[in-house]
């Protein structure tokens, strides 16, 4: 224990340690491990009828406290699954062991999303014990597949829409932008992922005996990938930006007013210089512009063959009204129009395409959240930010439940989400509990729609 943990609720640290110790990696963990994590969470929701319910994949955790007649109903969303550990040699501590390290807690899932979820459960349990009631009706939906794109959540939510009905969804997932000021994200980017598959000969060929006589799929793939952008960083695919509105001068001014240091950002990521679409600031590109990124190439190796196959792994983050299906069609048409003799080229889109999401800055829930944060962080400006990543459940809740999602997580984007040495600032736990309580009090009287 350290002085930083003295402010935590009794038993919270031990509970979080138990929770982090369950290696609920949804990419590789067996069903028994995932179910153990779900059952652990359900037990912490016994005061609201916590239970584990089946999906076609890993189970969800449900709970309902509906003891506030006439008050709004909110649905609290989060997830119990975590990302793989990656290279264990890069971890300074054991990934599935909670470690107190000065003013932070370390461990896989501690900030994404186990800590942020657990603090909400602890806040609600404490509020109920102290007041005898909650100020509004609360449902909980905690899933085990967020880190793999929530493939089975849509069918579950649509089948249980009446039971999940709420005026507002509040997400305990979706970190604050940075630690220097409180923030609320009013948008998240959509996602399309695809492979560009180039094939040539029927099998790998010796580069000496066959070199110069057949097309090399790696060379052709390099041509394809290089064609996706112009020299100044803009996406060169016709139709890719359909549905992306011109950035209004007011929004440019709002972004320009944010305290953001390009050099500090460059140094933090370790790049020799920053680069991106011309005509936009670094922050404007990060928050308001769509992207097309090459995430990897699979082909051959360091041996003397001409690979018969090369695959480029591509992902696109979407904004505005971009249609994920149209984006795939545009990229496919662009690739098909290229002159690539001697090879066959195919674009294979991944399932689970997600459009961009947005909640208006003047939405009553956003106003209530800003007031709650201002109460916990007096004298600090509450920044309206954008999540450059993707949270698949937001657009699902809007289409299936007719409810907007408010991002209200007390993780921070720099806490090594998905990377080795993931951590959570200890102070955020107490701050988050106070802010969630203040938010619920305001939503109970100030409206949720």
From TrEMBL:
Residues 187-339 form the Peptidase M20 dimerisation domain. One of its GO terms (molecular function) is peptidase activity. The keyword Hydrolase applies. The keyword rRNA-binding does not apply. GO terms for biological process: proteolysis. Keywords: Hydrolase, Metal-binding, Protease. This is Peptidase M20. It comes from Modestobacter italicus (strain DSM 44449 / CECT 9708 / BC 501).
């Amino acid at each position: 224990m350290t002085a930083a943990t003295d402010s935590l609720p009794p038993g919270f640290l031990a509970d979080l340690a138990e929770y982090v110790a369950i290696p609920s990696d949804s990419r590789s963990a067996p069903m028994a491990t995932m179910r153990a994590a779900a059952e652990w969470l359900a037990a912490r929701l016994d005061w609201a009828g916590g239970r584990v319910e089946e999906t076609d994949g890993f189970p969800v955790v449900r709970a309902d406290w509906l003891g506030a007649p006439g008050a709004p109903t909110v649905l609290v969303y989060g997830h119990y699954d975590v990302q793989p550990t990656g290279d264990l040699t890069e971890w300074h501590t054991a990934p599935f062991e909670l470690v107190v390290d000065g003013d932070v807690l370390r461990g896989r899932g501690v900030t994404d999303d186990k800590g942020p979820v657990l603090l909400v459960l602890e806040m609600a349990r404490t509020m109920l014990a102290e007041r005898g009631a909650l100020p509004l009706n609360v449902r909980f939906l905690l899933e085990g597949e967020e880190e793999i794109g929530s493939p089975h959540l849509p069918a579950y939510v649509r089948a249980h829409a009446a039971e999940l009905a709420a005026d507002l969804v509040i997400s305990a997932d979706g970190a604050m932008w940075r630690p220097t000021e409180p923030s609320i994200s009013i948008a998240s980017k959509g996602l399309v992922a695809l492979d560009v598959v180039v094939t040539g000969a029927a099998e790998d060929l010796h580069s000496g005996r066959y070199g110069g006589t057949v097309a090399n799929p790696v060379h052709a793939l390099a041509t394809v990938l290089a064609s996706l952008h112009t020299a100044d960083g803009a996406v060169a695919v016709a139709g890719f930006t359909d549905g992306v509105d011109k950035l209004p001068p007011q929004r440019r001014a709002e972004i320009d007013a944010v305290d953001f240091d390009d050099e500090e950002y460059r140094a933090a990521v370790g790049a020799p210089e920053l680069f991106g679409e011309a005509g936009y600031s670094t922050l404007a590109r990060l928050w308001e512009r769509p992207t097309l990124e090459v995430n990897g190439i699979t082909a051959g190796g360091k041996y003397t063959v001409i690979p018969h196959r090369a695959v480029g792994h591509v992902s696109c983050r979407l904004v505005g009204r971009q249609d994920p299906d149209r984006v795939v069609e545009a990229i496919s048409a662009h690739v098909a129009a290229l002159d690539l003799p001697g090879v066959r080229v195919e674009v294979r889109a991944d399932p689970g395409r997600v459009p961009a999401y947005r909640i208006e800055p003047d939405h009553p829930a956003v106003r209530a959240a800003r007031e709650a944060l201002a109460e916990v962080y007096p004298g600090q400006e509450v920044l309206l930010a954008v999540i450059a990543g993707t949270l698949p459940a937001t657009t699902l809740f809007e289409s299936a439940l007719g409810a907007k999602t408010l991002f209200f997580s007390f993780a921070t984007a720099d806490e090594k989400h998905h990377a080795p040495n993931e951590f959570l600032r200890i102070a955020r736990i107490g701050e988050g509990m106070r802010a969630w309580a203040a938010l619920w009090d305001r939503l109970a009287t100030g409206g949720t729609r």
